[in-house]
Amino acid sequence: MNISREGGDVYLLDYSRESLRLVRSYMKNDEVTFILADALKCPFKTNSYDIVFHQGLLEHFTSPFCLLHENYRILKKNGLLIVDVPQTFHIYTILKQVLIFFGLWFGGWERQFTIGSLSKLLRKSGFEPIHYYGDWSRPGIFYKIIRELLRKFRIKLPMYPKFFGKFTKKFYNLQNRLAKKKIFLYTVLSIGIIARKI
Fold it and tell me: Which fold would CATH assign to domain 2-136+189-197?
């Protein structure tokens, strides 16, 4: 982790022992301190952190205010909250909602956000959004679906396809350029906001 290499302290919190064990198995050294705890009741002092980051977490709460309130509590004044969530207007979201309806979604219940709705939520929770970002699925959602279907027949495709070579690189570069324009944040798979505690 870059923050750790720059001399910062990095903590990874999860309420699942198995999740922490898996992450620890991928770490090469002790760059991170692992904490087994609930994100709604962090075992940290008030105003103690410069940055809080979560990806794929906020969308699992029917009322996200409890999590954001706890994020606010543990952040120092002017500290940064980085939130990464699924975006509303995407084929992934449609497929996810269908699977949730039939009880087939692996991640349980989930919501999704637009840049506008996430910004409003963060403002209500005492944060001021200062930067927006987003990313498309890489590889694409249809490749992932085909990959999962073929696994049922014991046909394994690589996690990241290499057979398109230069075309794939050019396409990803185009996506990176487009993602800098706010309107394209309504086409990406996931969106994120960096917000400052005020």
Answer: Rossmann fold (3.40.50)
